[in-house]
Amino acid sequence: MLSKKLNKNLNEHMNLEFYSAYFYLSMSSWFSKEELAGFATWFRVQAQEELFHAMKTFDYINGAGGHALTTAIKAPQTDFDSIQQVFELTLEHERFVTSTVNKLLTEVRKESDHATDIFLQWFVSEQVEEEASVSAILKKVRMVGDDGRGILMLDNELGSRIFTPPATA
Fold first, then answer.
1. What is the pTM of this model?
2. What distance in Å separates the CA atoms of residue 138 and residue 158, rounded to the nearest whole number?
3. For residue 59, is pLDDT > 90?
4. Pairwise CA distance, residues 126 & 123, whole Å
5. How far, in Å, CA of 20 to CA of 26, rounded?
6. Could you give the CA distance from residue 33 to residue 37 in angstroms, rounded to a whole number?
7. Distance CA 9, CA 82 (A)
8. What is the per-residue pLDDT across 125-136, written as a single tens digit (0 to 9) for each?
9. Are 94 and 127 in contact (CB under 8 A)?
10. What is the DSSP letter of 77?
């Protein structure tokens, strides 16, 4: 059974994942407005991943004897200056999520909650992948700069992304 403190901390993490989905949907919408459907698709899939993460946490909390509580989600930024800014904000956000997962894991280990430790290991690995993926795209975005041909090539590449729930689910 989850302690009250870990239940609270896991709820905060779950709601951060829900916020992440909102944040990425906002970015997807901005790219749609800019008529960059591939970028919009990439962020829509990213939002689906974040919803998956939130629901994975929701199910864990309830399954571990806790109580998953949804809270109000603040409105995300809805307008951006450039493609580069969007990916810089995305990387910054993913690094923040990584730091919160690491802090949560530290708290879990203080309480010797081995089941929750095992649960969180999936998120640790996922965050490594998230940061690497966004970093690679940001590098490409910086490389092409304002070159329309390069942007269209990236748009085409990113548009091929599809959401596939992890097999461990």
1. 0.94
2. 12
3. yes
4. 5
5. 10
6. 9
7. 34
8. 999 999 999 999
9. yes
10. P
Q: Which amino acid is at 130?
A: E
Band (pLDDT 50/70/90 cuts) for residue 168 is: low
Question: CA of 155: how far to CAs of 14, 32, 93, 104, in Å?
Answer: 30, 11, 22, 36
**pLDDT tens digits, one per residue of 68-99:** 999 999 999 999 999 999 999 999 999 999 99
User: Which of 116, 104, 47, 52 has the alpha carbon at shortest distance from 76?
Assistant: 47
Among residues 45, 47, 46, 60, the alpha carbon closest in space to that of 14 is found at 60
pLDDT value, residue 114: 97
* Cβ(67)–Cβ(8) below 8 Å: no
* Alpha helices per DSSP H over the chain: 4-33, 37-63, 83-110, 114-144, 148-158
Q: C-alpha 116: how far from its chain's center? A: 20
Residues 6+ apart with CB under 8 A from 111: 3, 5, 6
Domains (ranges, CATH) in the chain? 4-71+79-158 (1.20.1260.10)
Cβ(159)–Cβ(116) under 8 Å? no
